[in-house]
Structures are given as structure tokens and as C-alpha cells.
Amino acid sequence: xxWRKLKLLWPPQRRAQEREMREELESLAGMATRGELGNLTxxxxxxxxxxxxTWLDGILADFRYAFRALRNQPGFVAVAVISLAxxxxxxxxxxxxxxxxxxxxxxxxxPSEVLTVSxxxxxxxxxxxxxxxxxxxxxxNHSFAGLVAYRLIPLGASSTTSEPPQMRLGILVxxxxxxxxxxxxxxxxxxxxxxxxxxxxPVAIFAYDxxxxxxxxxxxxxxxxxxxxxxxxxxxxxxxVSFTGLDRFVRPSIYVPLSTWRxxxxxxxxxxxxxxxxxxxxxxxxxxxxxESAQAELSTLAQNLEAAYxxxxxxxxxxxxxxxxxRILQTPRQVGLITTMMGLVGLVLIIACSNVASLLLxxxxxxxxxxAVRLAIGASRxxxxxxxxxxxxxxxxxxxxxxxxxxxxxxAFLGTLNVPSDIPFVxxxxxxxxxMLFSLLAALASCLFFGLAPAFQTVRADLVPAxxxxxxxxxxxxxxxxxxALVVGQIAFAMVLLVATGMFLDxxxxxxxxxxSFRTDHLISMEVxxxxxxxxxxHTYDFYRSLADRTRSLAxxxxxxxxxSIPLSPTQTTLAVVPEGYQFPKGQEKVTVFGGxxxxxxxxxxxxxxxRGRAFTASDRMGTPLVAIVNDQFAKTYWPNQNAIGxxxxxxxxxxxxxEVVGVAKxxxxxIVNESPAPxxxxxxxxxxxxxxxxxxxxxxxxxxxxxxxxxxxxKLDANLPxxxxxxxxxxxxxxxxxxWLTYLQMIAAxxxxxxxxxxxxxxxxxxxxxxxxxxxxGVRIAIGASRTDVLRLVLRQGIxxxxxxIAIxxxxxxxxxPAVAANFLGVGTFNLSNYVMVPAILLAISxxxxxxxxxxxARLDPIRALRCE
Amino acid sequence: MDLLQGTLDMLVLRTLxxxxxxxxxxxxxxxxxxxxxxxxxxxxxxPALKRLELQGWIASKWETSGHNRRAxxxxxxxxxxxxxxxxxxxWTEFVHAIGxxxxxxxxxxxx
Lengths: 870, 111
Hints:
Shape of chain A: globular
Structural class of chain B: alpha+beta
Distance between the termini of chain B: 30 Å
Structural class of chain A: alpha+beta
Strand content of chain A: 15-25%
Number of helices of chain B: 4
Low-confidence stretches of chain A: 470-474
Number of strands of chain A: 22
Radius of gyration of chain B: 17 Å
Low-confidence stretches of chain B: none
Radius of gyration of chain A: 36 Å
Number of helices of chain A: 26
Order of helices and strands of chain B: HEHHEEH
Oligomer: heterodimer
Distance between the termini of chain A: 61 Å
Largest interface: A-B, 26 and 20 residues
Strand content of chain B: 5-15%
Largest sheet of chain A: 6 strands, mixed, barrel
Mean pLDDT of chain B: 84
């Protein structure tokens, strides 16, 4: 029925229907006696109504009329569409960024049912969970329909034993991972419960992208075998294209069951160890449970675990969080960034909408006669509002459509943001349906914002005077008051945007002047991970010693050092330490700080200054007293006003062996360049051997020239060992220090610029309009002796008064908002006088320039002609 | 006699249930079956036909009648027949219900 009716919307169908009906009625009239059938025209009219879409026809008529009306004012349409496109486009671009960082739901069915369960300890509210704890919770809880656990793991993947392995990001998952998340495989099957068993067959599932890129979407890979870290796995399936994993920033390539953890990692059995809190646990809430009930139940279960295993589970609570809460907890800085950006870009849209509203108010006068005529011949005011809103809607939709193009540019720009690592970190900033939808909503909201008030204003026209003179129907004063307020608001918001830009520029300039507390030149670094080859601890140690020795003997190498992590690398290692004599708050007994394991040539090679005491030496070996070096910030935080040298430091627990602090190193940035000073602990490699180390090589000449020989050294030692993150320290530093910030700065500067342009256009439009309204008045003034300068001053004064009001209000807004912005960004928001002097000065100058053009026009008026036009 | 609201559709379907007819024929058939009690306005019959056709309950076809005259005839579709059955039983129920309430005609009481 709907379909049949819809078909009749198609004009040719409708015409055919019309013809049929005429023929039929004629044939019937021939049969009946004259007049027997009554009024046939009326019958046809009523019949027509059965297939007409009255309301739709009305809307179509509205659109047709609106298009006709808009075609006559291309200037207005162009300005309005460009304004809106800039506003909406900027918003959509920032939205895509927010979506990638925070908003996009998990790629699973009913994502809102999926909650995160983590351990909450006094030092860390979102810590991971151990496998035995996970199993206990999974078995005993009734709140979740399925509780899954996973952990990322680096995998060296090769198809055959002879081929050198490629470093891939793998993910260990519980057997119920795909089932509980509601993810069906694209090919093959998912894991079986028996594959969760530690002796189960090693099986693997490919992520869709990996399969597509590495195996050219060949469905016959299912059933084939693959070597991961030297273990033969059978490929049993391919995940669907929609499923990209549960992490926002990394997309694992290969899924393997948690049961293969020990075989892949080679260490002691991580599945038995209740102290390895390394699993992320998420669960799908049972239909009968709520988040609160789940939290209550898991708290009880965690308390039971604490009672049963006091050693490993002391002070370990369970925390149930929504995905959004988890994301905010994990990346508070990004959330701050997003909130600030969304706020600023919202101001841009408000400024853009104000421009359009202002233009519409100006048109209201021009149209008052047309409106009055339509009112006079019986159109209802509401009907006219609908008509005007249709015009606004068309403008808004056009603006939204062009805005998507603007957003496309912005997104391409944001896409250049990257994290320096071989493991693919993805910032999924993309122009997808969600962004399109957002643009559409932004366009509709803008339409209401800029269209509604002017529409009602326009139809409020008083009939008689409007019809009589075509002139004033609404008092000019009231209409100007509205426009004045809009322009003042625009300037105020532009001021906020510019001050924000200034603040970021300031912070950026300061960052460029930060001197890192370590060398960045003539250094190249490389990571290897022998754990993928199942070396014994001794073998690993020998491997690193030969690696360092052979590298040292390469031509062009000045020195070689080994570090567990290098400063500013995105993956920083941490240590849980107990500083001697430090009083922790109740319930806490250790603190997690940045730190790692370093060899004795590290401080020299990286040029990390030792402020007091000494660096590690060759005599800090296995068997000699344990030593440690802390940075200045650590000494200040945990041993204030004391000499840190000679203090004792323990790892993990208060009863573990103590290391004596032998040196204090200079505090440097560790994760990001402008971080607040963070405590750091260095431990000697010889006393705390690790399997995963970074080799740092200082060169005589260009460090990047050493890349090939470094590869060769590793290849000769073990051809099957993957190398990754081979890069110069300078490139890492540049990316971390300036790359990301430059992108943010450019974005915010673009917003400030767009805001300024739009606000200036608004002011110019208003002053021009008011000059054209006052032509007669200015004519009189000139006629009775006002000089050109007087007129110039008169008009300029109006612009300056508006600008000053805007700047004053903007100043208040800035004062109110700065603390919020400063709290979100380190190094931003510190008081900078030049910022608060420059921005108002710039705004005032631009406002004066925008008012000057119409003012000059007014001053050049020919009084005779001006008076005649009255 | 005026028609009750909504009964015209039912009458048309019932009439076409006996065989295909053109628009004028339907009007005549209803009048004669009701022994001239129901006078169908063509002005309301015609839109009703279009409405029923749009619903898919009747279908139309151009045919040439015995006097070599082209006319559009309407016939009941299977969907229409089903609808008619439903309407018919509803109508029967309705008539009985009204009948029970009204009872035999009351005698006039002089006050």
C-alpha cells in the first residue's frame, strides 16, 4: 500500500493515473443518464486525494519556493554557506578526533553492555588482573553473561622455519573471547573451551586487516600452519572486518588462546601466578544484573580472594567500570584535550551561526513587504515561519555538505598524528558515517540556532505600515539591538579563541626551548626481544653481551649502551619501589614510578648528568652489593631535605633485598617533553638482567648510516630474531617533542583564525547595514555642515564601541575559562601579559579596519542623492 | 437512506464478490439489491473505488462490454476477499449487538 502510494509520487506515474481516471469517468458518463452521476469534477478531486501526499506536497512546495527565494540572493547564500561550512567542518573534524580517542563504541554487538573489571589498588585504580583471579571471578560471578580476559604479546611470525620472522602484535585471549563479545568469524571458527587448556592445541585466528594484507584475503589459509615465536600454530579462522579489537590505539594482528602464553613467552607459568596482574578483563553484563549489582558482587568476590590469598591479593579491590569511564581513567590528558578542543570549536560554530542569523535579520527588513503581502492574503504566521525555516534548512544543509569537505581536510591533517613505534598504533581518525551523521546534526542544530529567532522576528511585521511604504514594519532599533548583541558575542568568542591560540603558541614556544637532560644527536637505538626465541636467561645474557661487543667493534661507533627503555619512547617501563623511611598513606606500601634497568655505559652514552654520587660501574655486578640511582625529583619527593646517597630502596615489597642509592641523576622528561618532573629509578643491568633491552649506539658520524650494520650484527647472531624500532634518537625526540604539539597548535590556531575572520565579517556586515539604513540621516548631517571627518568618526565609533564591548566580555570569559584549560594542559595557561595585551589590540585594530570601509563610504555620500533616496 | 460511516467500502467489496463490474454497474447493483433503499452518491463511490484499489483489495482492467463500449471493470482480489470475510463477520456481530440493545420497537407511551 505504501509502495503503491509512493509510486504515485513519481510525476509520470501520476500523470498516467490522471489520464486513466479521465478516460474512465468519460466512459461511465456515456453509460449513465445525464446528471445521474452528479458532479464528476468533485468525484475526481476526491479520488485524487486518496493518492495525494498532502503534507508532503506542502513540504515540496515549501522547498520549491525556498529554492526560488534563495536563487535570487546568491550573495547571502554564499556567505551563509561558507560561514556554516567552516563552523560545521571544524566541528566535524574535531568530533572525528574525539570519536577516535573517546566516543566510538566498542566494535562488538550491544557495546553498552560490555563493562571493564579491573583491580583497584591504593596506587593504581585500574590495574590488571592475574589469570587465577580471573578464573575465580569468571566461575563464581553471576553478574556477567561472559567474562573475557586478554593481554597483548609481541609475536615473531613466520610461515616456515627457514624464513626470518616478522614482528607482529599478537593478543592472548580467553577461550570465550569471541563468543562472549558476540563476534562471529568471517571464516573458520573461533576458539573451543578445550583450547583454553594449557596442553591444548596451539591455534590462532587472524585479524581481518592482517589477513587481507599478508595473505591477500586468501580464505584457504584456514587450516594452514604458522610459526609464532618458534611454536607451530594452526590457523583456525579470520575475525570479521568490523572487529578491530577492544583497544582504541592498537589493533592486534593475531589472536591466540591464553593457554599458549607460557609456550610463547618461555618464562615461568604466567597462568599459575597470582602476582602477575597483567590481564585486561571485560565482561558482558547479564540481562538481570546492573552495573551497581555487578560492582557489589565482584567487591565481595575480591574480598574473598584477599582473605584466601593475603600475600598476592592484599588491598586488591575489584572495580567495575563502563567503557567510557575506563577510557577517561586511562587517558585523562587526551580527555582534557578533547574537551578543550570541542569547547573551542563550538565557539567557532556559534560565531558562524551568529553571522547567518545577523544576515537573516538584515533580510527581514528587505522582505517585510513580501511577508506583509502574504499575511494580508491570508497566510498564517506559523505557515510563514515554516517557509522561512525551510529556507534556513536548505542553507544549513548546504553548509553541512560543504562542511564535510572542510572536515575531510581537517581529518586528513589529524591523520598525520602518529606515535613513533613499529607496532602499529592507530589513531582511528576517519571520515565515517558517524562523522557524517554528526555533521548533519550540527547542520540541523545550527538551523534552529540561527533561523528560528529571525523567522519569528520577520513575520512579526505590522501589516499596514509595511504595505504602505515597504519600509519600517519593525522598529529598527529593536532589530539592530539583536544584531548588535550577536556581533558583541562574536567578538567576545573570537577573543576567547585567540587567547587560547596565544596560550598554546606560548606553551609551544616554551617547549621548543626545553633542553632535554640527555643527548639526542649522534644516537641510534634498536630493540630486540629474545623471548620470542625462547632463550634461556643465560643465553639471553650472552646474546646481549655479544651484541654489545660486536656493535662496539663496528666502524663509526663511539660507544654502546643498553637500556630497558629510552627517554621519550612511548613505551616506558615502570618499577614498584619502597623508598626507605618514606611514610606512605594508609593502605599503600609501595609506589610505582618510571624506571628501568641500564648498563654502566648508559649515563655516558646518553649524556645523562649525575648530580651527586656516581654512575654505575663495571664493579656493580652479580654478587656485589645491590645499588640504584634515582633522579633528583625522586630524591626530592621521597627524601626531602635529606641526602639521598646511602638511602635504601626496595623493589615491590618492604621485605625484599635492599639496594643502596649511589647516585642522583638529573631529572629529565621521560614520557613527553613538557611533563611535570617525574621521579625515576635506575637499576644496574648486571644485577637485574632483563630479556627485553634497547641497544643505544653513539656514532662518530651520521647515526642513521649505522642501521644496516646493526641489522647485520643481529642477523649474524640469530637470523630468526626480529628487530624493531630501529631509529635515531633525534627523530624520536622530534616526534615526541614537537610533532604532536605542532599538530594541536595548528588546529587551535586554525580555529582562532576562522573565528576571527567570521567575527570580522559579522562586524563589517552590521556596520555596512547600519550605514545603508542611515543614508538619509547622514545626508542631512552633511547637508547641515558635518564634515567628512565627523561622519567618519560617527560610523567608526559605532564599530569601536561594539568591539570594546565584545573584548570586555571576552576578557571575562577568558578569565573564567583559563583555569580549566590550564588544568588540561601542562605548560598552558600560565599568565602571559603580552597575550592579554596583544589579542585585544589585534581585535580592536581589525574591528576598526572592518568599520572603516563602510565609514568611508558614508563620508563620501553625496548629500543631495542621499536625501533624494528617502 | 444515508449510509453508516465506513460501510460503503464493505458494500462495494460485497457487490464485487458476486462478479466483476464497472463503476456505474456497482452503483446500480447496490441500489437494486437494496431495493432502492440505498442511494449511492457516485461522488463518494468513485473515490472509494480508488481507495480500495490502492489498498490492493480490488483490481481494475479495461474491458469492452457487449455494446462495444470500453469500460474499466473492477474485481475482488484474494486479499480483498479475505478482508471482506473479516468485515462481514464484524458486521454481523455489530448488527446482533445493536439488535440486542434495541430489542423490539417500544410502544409509544402517551404522557
